[in-house]
Write a structure and sequence with these properties.
The complex is a heterodimer of chains A (about 280) and B (about 250). Helices cover about 80% and strands about 0% of the residues of chain A. Chain A is mainly alpha-helical and about 280 residues long. In chain A, helix 3 packs parallel to helix 6, helix 3 crosses helix 9 and helix 9 packs antiparallel against helix 10. Chain A is flat, with a radius of gyration of 25 Å. Chain B has a 6-stranded mixed beta sheet with strand order 5-6-7-3-8-9, sandwiched between helices. A 3-stranded antiparallel beta sheet of chain B has the order 2-1-4, covered by helices on one side. The chains are: A mainly alpha (about 280), B alpha/beta (about 250). The structure holds adenosine-5'-triphosphate and magnesium ion (MG).
Chain lengths: ~280, ~250
């Protein structure tokens, strides 16, 4: 027999080793930095309001957990709503731009121009117009996120293989059928790279919206901590912000892996490697 | 089946120069015939097929499908383009059902027919495989089966074996004839390969370099079913000489 499979336990061990090889280096790096930080602060006797040690930050965060929770929830809500809005609007605009060259020519310069206006300038205006509620923050998040989604949708649709469209036409397909059966699925990888960029900005967008005026949210918590020199709390909120962004990014990547299995399969052919002879089965 | 009379087609390149791709081409194909079209690269073979299937309209001349000059041709001619164009996100079976889906045929019946034809196309057991897992030859056969399942009598094949190695090509051409004899299509087949053109055809049409026009039509009187040994026949050799002459090489 020419083809033989490694036995199950060995296969599992190889897979585990591969996961470790991916996860271990960043983990070790982060841990090392934390240890250096911790030692540096303790040995150098740095004041706590100047730079708290990682252990101080951790315990401050834990002690403040019931205080923090509503803020986290608030920011997460704003982020998710804003991101959903950006997704809907961005996708819609991308489709519109694709649908007609006229709309494209009219809209594109405007969209690019909108990105050159700093969000910090728009956020206060939104507060003036819409008050201190949830809506202005949601809008700030959407403003920060929608552009990469528009561009990646429009670009993905534009890049459709003309011959594929021809093939569908010869089958008697309508424009709509061509869009849904071929062009949209074909544009998904591009769309997802836009969504990944957008989602990394989203939490920061919410925080920015809160700084301008809000009664709850991580941005407000951060601001209050800064004003009262609770540097440990500033770090706690930075950490949570980062974790939220990471969680969102991971969810998008996971969804992408699920939806675009075909894309990765087509891109990565079988991987051939030498078999280490010790692992060979009889 | 189809009657092409005196058609010409030009393209504007970069908005400036006009390139005439084909010039005064006439071609009649009877029902159930297998005709091949041979010519140098860029002579307008693909353009001619694009015109026949209705993707483009000729500048001058007419194309009459099944005796009806006003009929819309898109959706009534099966066309297999030069590349296999299988959708990477669909399984083989999903790809095969593309035609029936967009033309609104009952899917259950199409699926049953697809499964029935899988063995003839050497794809048995691969219905759930994704295109990226298939060999080049299998992908080509899958593309042909997809074309067949569009349920059109007239099928256009644009260099379907162009991407294959010489050995696979030889087996594929005999196989294609077997498919044709079982399913009774009318086929227009484009190729660069002289032996392939003779081996397959009832009639070989030779096109000149651009602007492409048909310079010679040769009826192939070799008996059917064709067999690989026939390429060594004296008659086959004579056809080969005639075609080489017409191609000017
Ligand atoms: N859509 C188009 N727009 C502009 N020019 C075109 C178009 N389609 C074909 N042409 C031109 O028409 C000529 C004939 O092209 P065509 O693809 O029909 O040749 P072909 O015989 O199929 O070539 P090959 O054997 O390489 O496939 C070429 O010069 C090509 O550049
Ligand atoms: Mg061609």
């Amino acid at each position: 027999m020419l083809e033989s499979h490694l036995d199950k336990s060995l296969e599992q061990r190889i897979r585990a080793r591969r996961t470790m090889a991916r996860v271990l280096p960043p983990l070790v790096l982060v841990l090392t930095l934390l240890v250096i930080w911790q030692l540096g602060v303790r040995v150098g006797n740095v004041d706590k309001w100047l730079l708290p040690a990682p252990s101080d930050i951790a315990s401050a965060g834990w002690d403040a957990r019931s205080l923090l929770w509503p803020h986290v929830l608030q920011t997460a809500t704003e982020t998710l709503l804003g991101f959903a809005l950006a997704l809907a609007v961005g996708f819609g605009l991308g489709m519109l731009i694709d649908a007609s060259p006229l709309i494209n020519n009219a809209l594109y310069p405007l969209l690019v121009a909108s990105q050159t206006v700093p969000t910090v300038a728009i956020a206060p205006l939104l507060v003036i117009w819409l008050g201190y509620g949830l809506l202005p923050k949601v809008l700030v998040v959407a403003l920060v996120c929608f552009f990469p989604i528009v561009v990646s949708t429009a670009d993905g649709l534009r890049a459709t293989d003309g011959e594929l469209v021809n093939l569908l036409s010869t089958m008697g397909a309508s424009r709509q059928a061509i869009l849904f059966k071929v062009r949209l699925p074909d544009a998904l990888p591009s769309l997802f790279s836009g969504v990944r960029i957008a989602v990394t900005y989203s939490v920061v967008g919410a925080i920015l919206g809160e700084w301008v005026g809000a009664s709850a949210g991580l941005g407000i918590f951060m601001l209050r901590a800064t004003n009262s020199f609770r540097t440990d709390w500033v770090f706690v909120s930075i950490l949570i912000t980062a974790l939220l962004s990471l969680a969102l990014f991971a969810s998008v990547s996971l969804l992408e892996r699920r939806l675009l299995g075909w894309y990765y399969r087509a891109a990565h052919q079988e991987k051939w490697e030498e078999v280490d002879t010790k692992g060979k089965t009889s | 089946m189809i009657e092409v009379s005196h058609i010409s087609k030009s393209f504007r390149v970069d908005g400036m120069t006009i390139v005439q791709a084909i010039h005064d081409v006439s071609l009649t194909v009877d029902q159930g015939a297998f005709i091949t079209l041979i010519g140098p690269s860029g002579c307008g073979k693909s353009t001619l097929l694009n015109l026949i299937c209705g993707l483009m309209e000729p500048d001058t001349g007419t194309i009459v499908l099944e005796g009806d000059p006003s009929a819309k041709r898109l959706g009534r001619v099966g066309y297999m383009l030069q590349r296999d164009l299988l959708l990477p996100w669909r399984t083989l079976l999903g790809n095969l059902l593309l035609g029936p889906e967009v033309s609104g045929q009952p899917l259950e019946r199409a699926r049953a027919q697809a499964r029935e034809l899988l063995p003839l196309f050497g794809l048995d057991g691969f219905e759930d495989a994704y295109p990226s897992a298939l060999s080049v030859g299998m992908r080509q056969r899958a593309a042909l089966l997809r074309t067949v399942l569009c349920q059109q009598e007239l099928i256009l094949l644009d260099e379907p074996f162009g991407a294959l190695d010489a050995l696979t090509r030889r087996t594929m051409r005999s196989w294609l004839l077997e498919v044709w004899s079982r399913l009774n299509h009318t086929i227009i087949f484009v190729t660069h390969d002289i032996d392939e053109a003779i081996y397959l055809a009832d009639e070989v049409h030779v096109m000149s370099p651009r602007p492409g026009t048909i310079v010679q039509t040769t009826r192939i009187e070799l008996p059917r079913p064709r067999r690989e040994e026939m390429v060594n026949d004296r008659l086959f050799g004579e056809y080969r000489t005639t075609l080489l002459q017409a191609l000017g090489v």
